[in-house]
Please model this.
Amino acid sequence: MSFYLRRVAFYLVTFWAAISLNFLLPRLLPGDPAAIMLGKLRRANAGRPLSEETVQAITAILGAEKGTSLWDQYLAYWGRLLQGDLGVSSTRYPAPVAELISAALPWTIVLVGTATVISFVLGIVVGAWVGWRRGTWLDHLVPVTTVFQSIPYFWLALVLVAVFSVQLGIFPIIGGYDVFEFPGGPEWSWAFLGSAVWHAILPATTIVLSSIGGWLLGMRNMMVSTMSEDFIVTAEAKGLTPRRIRTKYASRNAAIPSLAGFGIALGFVVAGSIVMEQVFSYPGIGKLMIQAVQGLDYALMQGVFLVITLTVLAANFVMDLIYGFIDPRVRHNG
Amino acid sequence: MADRQTLTESGSGGELPGAGAETAPDLPFGAPIGAEAARESAREATATAAVAAASAAAVRRGGRFRGLLPRRSGKLVTGLVIVGAITLFGLLGPLIAQPPRDSNNPALLPPGPEHWLGTTKLGYDVFSQLAYGTQGSLFIGLVAGLVALVLGVLFGVFAGYFGGIADEVLTLITNIVLVIPGLPVVMVIAAYVQNADGLGPLARSSLLVALVLGITSWAGSAVVLRAQARSLRTREYVAAARVAGERPARIIFVEILPNLVPLLAAQFIFGVILAVLGEAGLSYLGLGPTGSITLGTMLNDAQTGQAVGTGAWWWFVPPGAIIAALGAGLSLINFAIDEVVNPKLRLAPENAKRQRKATKAGKGVADTGAFA
Model:
């Protein structure tokens, strides 16, 4: 049980660290983001003075004028967060940041989640096979995967768009769904779902192609290492079928480090996807982040950063729990 | 990421009882590998005598320092050639190309004899931009890789060596940095810094971008280095140095770090790849260095210049191709290093191959089993 307690404690500390980082960055780095943000909001409000409520929200998030102690600011910041108040966006004034994020988050979670699971499963299965057939021509496949691993996500996306959308005209160029067919925004219908899936194919392909190399390579290398363990020889000597050795003995053990590294790899996928969403103008959290950064919409940027971090933390946490369940050694020695 | 995992694995493998226990103090890194290989070949001997003889010969051929150096395999040579060619291009290309911001050329020319890689919308020569961009990206990659390596050593090796409270604290920080996604942090920092007045000429320079990328990407190396340092700490020659009264700093830099050289090299290379990729993404979003040209800023120009929509492939394909080639070349070098750190990766496929050959020649024992 202490394994789970330790993990929960770790994620609580990390959660606290992420929020504190979010609090400290605009205050410690040079510049005055709160003043810039308030100026932008005033302009977005057509020059009329902002409500007291808005000003308070922005100063709580980005930094108050001189005079208030850092500790008081920190308490005010936590107070705002616990109420779910992330301020008001200036690029999409007067939409609250929390509302913009909750509209964008499902797009990214579904896209990145599905693509990552496909890539992970494919990589593990193919990697296990390549590792099993070690010493054959399949070994030459391994260096090739490094090329895919080193391709920037967004560049692969650009190439896919250039070939499949601009040249061949098969897939749509931008967007998460057909905005002309559904001018009212997302709705619950089969037609909309079809449109969304159709628009997601190229982005998902980008993620799968760019991330599969890492899984494949890691699994192959672990498979090669596992195959030279003594228990495999024993299994072989017992006369077990090769198929049984491959699936029940070698693959299961070789997959454990890949599972352990899943959460960390997820960070890379999320980072790659943020930039990729810009290429496709995908209506997800990455696009929102980029919009915020380019428009110096600091409140929106802070909010999106917080949500991305918390989502990745949550995914890591779930993965840790599953890992502890799969590999009892971590529970007892970890 | 995933190949890092195998490195970790091989690192913790060193902690297994017996592995490298009889190491000669003056041959720290070569010896455990030799021991591994010997164990390997001993096990093989029970399978096929011919194979055992062959791999024992292979071990004997390894010289005193052979274990420390990557073997001259096809992977290593290919990797070195690719990386060398790109580095030369980045160093010498700017000398022969026209100024990268010379707009006296026709706009959007496809590749031809006059402009090898065509021109951009503003009439810049793409070849020239590519040469300068490669130089800029390499600079950022090297600086960020170095910063990440130094921090990785600081957090990883120190934590692994000292243990106790220091280890707990350093490892906690490392793990926190590890799970907080890097690129969003870099984006946030870049967005704040680019509008700050207090930084002078440093603001939005290549150097600042490199520092930010380095500061946010060291955690992975720290984890790997900590595992290895922890296992080295228990070796006898380190204990001997401690008994002899050497200061901890000296033990770390003289006794431990030299044995981590292959790992350090691998982590540095990984850091360079990460930084080059990170810079490309950051610049593509318009958050990169403003004064200098990098492969990322080229892609950003191509994006704002509608290169994809107008079919100007010669504008956006070369920078990405260079990044991919550089990354692939560096990864290949890392593979070669990986095979030194984890000899199973090298020996097992070779043995399997040999066994398969023996089976074909009618000398083998099994023709359908896991080793066939």
Remarks:
- The longest helix of chain A spans residues 190-227.
- Chain A touches chain B through 89 residues (CB under 8 Å).
